[in-house]
Design goal:
Chain A: InterPro entries: Cyt_c-like_dom (IPR009056), Cyt_c-like_dom_sf (IPR036909), Cyt_c_oxidase_monohaem-su/FixO (IPR003468). The complex is a heterodimer. Chain A is built from five helices and two strands. Chain A is mostly helical. The longest helix of chain B is centred in the N-terminal third of the chain and has 43 residues. Chain B is extended and about 125 Å long. Classes of the chains: A mainly alpha, B mainly alpha.
């Protein structure tokens, strides 16, 4: 190893180049983006729900980045238009995700706006989809003898309902559902918004 | 690569006391150069290809920006041709005993507020035009045309067939829109004459308002509060049955069609986990009540083109079909203007593109197969991907179903 210095310099240069191209330049590009018109900041409850989303690791199975029709039929699946950078203005850290074990959730609030539906689904996904591989989250709920006024009771098919008791959402579940229902970026993206154009093709989307 | 780099430093014969280990200078093996060059070329090509794609994307959107004001500059005559001529005919003579003429009509020649109010709210009752009584449904354009567009088409209609040169402005339409905001369709000529312009003269009256199942409190509870696993319909389908994304618009679908779909969810002939759960928790009578409720519901359109489809191609398919692809016109079955034909042919107007496209794809993929007559399977198979998006986007631009499409009893 008699060329430590040139090797070291080369390695650092490669790292610096990658940082410049993949971190600094894109950062400069999106830093000045204002939120997409129509995007609103999260409410207190939604932010708490977002923290639950992050801590439960939903991001490992769900992306939040519908792709353009040139790339995938996400729009036809009802997942919404391709996202643009300014859609994530209030998301820190963003929950883009890399895996789609489950469906994309960027617009789940438009596609599944029902609070009651989400409660059932989070408590036991198999109560709705017998083939679902999503984990159940029973610890976001509590089993009570009787619902108190103001409680959100989870509607369950007999098979999954505890006998003679009711399942009630804990505040964490209610916040999480508030967050999920807020995920609705179906407003139009301005034509000038920064986006992934890497798959655009001439003519109509395939 | 590792193999190539392995040193073959065979020691010279016998160990030598003075030997200092050293590294021979060896050239980098040629294949490493090749690989490096290939990678560099690959990188360059990818960059070039990406730049090309980004250029295409930018250009398409730039064209879109240019097009938008141009589309907004559609003349009144163009809007008339696209939006009115299918019913009132290109020369505005109407269709005997079904659709009234505009040419020579009192409604067109009366106060400018009359035409604007008709365009904003539609008509659902009998009217008298030129001594003949018509009793059909004129759709409301409030949710699909802007104030400026309504002003232009109203001006065109009045200048061409009403003999009035005065121009109707967007500001005038805005005022008229606010005037009866939130009301439903005009219940015939009598109401228009009474409320908007007495100069319309004697007009047939609509008779007493029909109070149907709308007000059934049990049905309303299911719609708004739900019961157990029958989550409130409105929590997904919207407060006015208008739908969204891939949740279908229900307002204005034929009653018989809704009953059949709900039954098919129960028996599993039509598959969708959420709807199977909901429909299974309802009784027969409740399903019928809900079907009656939604078929009579009117809701402004909330659909808009969102799949990047070619809307004029979609219009072509909907109105005329495409015989080169063996596609009959959608409206030959789904009724003129896509308002549906009770009981078997659902309305398509103002349906959300993601839902329409997903259903068309489901017929091709076998995901939807619950019709005995199977008319859609063939139609859907003959649509290309681009056509599917085009027609779905076009249908989203249409005014919603004007009135109760219940079967007449």
């Amino acid at each position: 190893m008699n060329r430590v210095i040139p090797l070291g310099i080369l390695a650092l240069a490669i790292l610096a180049f990658a940082t410049l191209m993949l971190v600094i330049l894109p950062g400069i590009q999106i830093r000045t983006e204002a939120p997409t018109p129509g995007l609103r900041p999260y409410s207190e409850a939604e932010l708490r729900g977002r923290a639950v989303y992050v801590s439960e690791g939903c991001v490992y199975c769900h992306s939040q980045q519908p792709r353009s029709l040139d790339q995938a039929p996400d729009g036809e699946r009802g997942w919404g238009r391709a996202s643009v950078a300014s859609d994530y203005f209030y998301d820190q850290p963003h929950q883009l995700g890399t895996m789609r074990t489950g469906p994309d959730l960027q617009n789940v609030g438009a596609r599944l706006p029902s609070e009651a539906w989400h409660m059932t689904h989070l408590y036991q996904p198999r109560a709705l989809y017998d083939w679902s591989v999503m984990p159940a989250y029973p610890y976001l709920f509590e089993v009570k003898d009787k619902a108190a006024p103001g409680d959100v009771v989870v509607a369950l098919p007999e098979r999954y309902a505890p006998e003679g008791k009711v399942v009630v959402a804990k505040p964490r579940a209610r916040d999480l559902v508030a967050y999920l229902r807020s995920l609705d970026r179906t407003f139009p993206a301005p034509p000038t918004a920064v986006r992934d154009d890497g798959y655009s093709e001439q003519g109509e989307p395939r | 690569m590792i193999r190539r780099k392995r040193t073959q430093a065979a020691p010279p014969d016998g160990p030598e006391e003075t030997f200092e280990p050293y590294e021979e200078f060896r050239r980098i093996p040629l294949p490493v150069y090749w690989i490096a060059i290939a990678l560099a070329i690959w990188g360059a090509v990818t960059l070039w290809d990406n730049a090309q794609a980004v250029g295409v994307g930018r250009q398409e959107r730039a064209e879109q920006i240019e097009e938008t004001p141009a589309a907004a500059l559609n003349s009144g005559a163009q809007i008339f041709e696209a939006r009115c001529s299918t019913c009132h005919q290109p020369n505005a003579v109407g269709v005997r005993s079904a659709i009234p003429p505009l040419a020579g009509s009192r409604f067109v020649a009366a106060d400018p507020a009359v035409v604007v109010q008709i365009l904003l709210h539609g008509i659902d009752g009998p009217i008298d035009v030129g001594g003949r009584t018509f009793d059909a449904h004129m759709p409301s354009f409030a949710s699909v045309l802007s104030d400026a567009e309504l002003a232009r088409v109203a001006t065109h209609v009045r200048q061409t067939w009403g003999g009035d040169r005065q121009e109707i402005t967007a500001a005038f339409v805005r005022v008229q829109r606010a005037r009866f905001a939130g009301r439903g369709a005009w219940r015939g000529g009598e109401e228009l004459a009474r409320v908007v312009d007495p100069a319309l003269g004697p007009q047939p009256s609509a008779g007493p308002a029909v109070i149907s199942a709308f007000a059934d409190p049990a049905v309303l509870r299911l719609v708004n509060q739900g019961r157990g696993e029958a989550w409130a319909c409105s929590s997904c389908h919207g407060a006015a049955g208008q739908g969204g994304a891939n949740i279908p618009r229900l307002a204005g679908l034929p009653e018989g069609y809704i009953v059949k779909q709900l039954q098919d969810y129960v028996t599993g002939r039509r598959r969708n986990e959420s709807m199977q759960t909901v429909a299974g928790a309802l009784t027969d009578a409740e399903r019928r009540g809900l079907a009656r409720y939604y078929s009579g519901l009117r809701a402004p359109s909330t659909a808009k083109p969102e799949l990047g489809g070619d809307v004029s191609r979609g219009e072509q398919l909907a109105l005329y079909g495409d015989w080169s692809r063996n596609l009959p016109a959608c409206f030959s079955c789904h009724g003129p203007s896509g308002f549906g034909v009770a009981p078997g042919f659902p309305s398509l107007a103002a349906q959300h593109p993601a839902y329409t496209a997903s259903q068309l794809a489901a017929w091709v993929g076998g995901g939807r197969n619950n019709s005995d007559v199977q008319l859609m399977n063939e139609v859907a198979r003959n649509l290309s991907d681009a056509d599917r998006r085009a027609v779905a986007d076009y249908l989203a631009t249409l005014p919603p179903v004007p009135a109760v499409t219940q079967e007449r009893r």
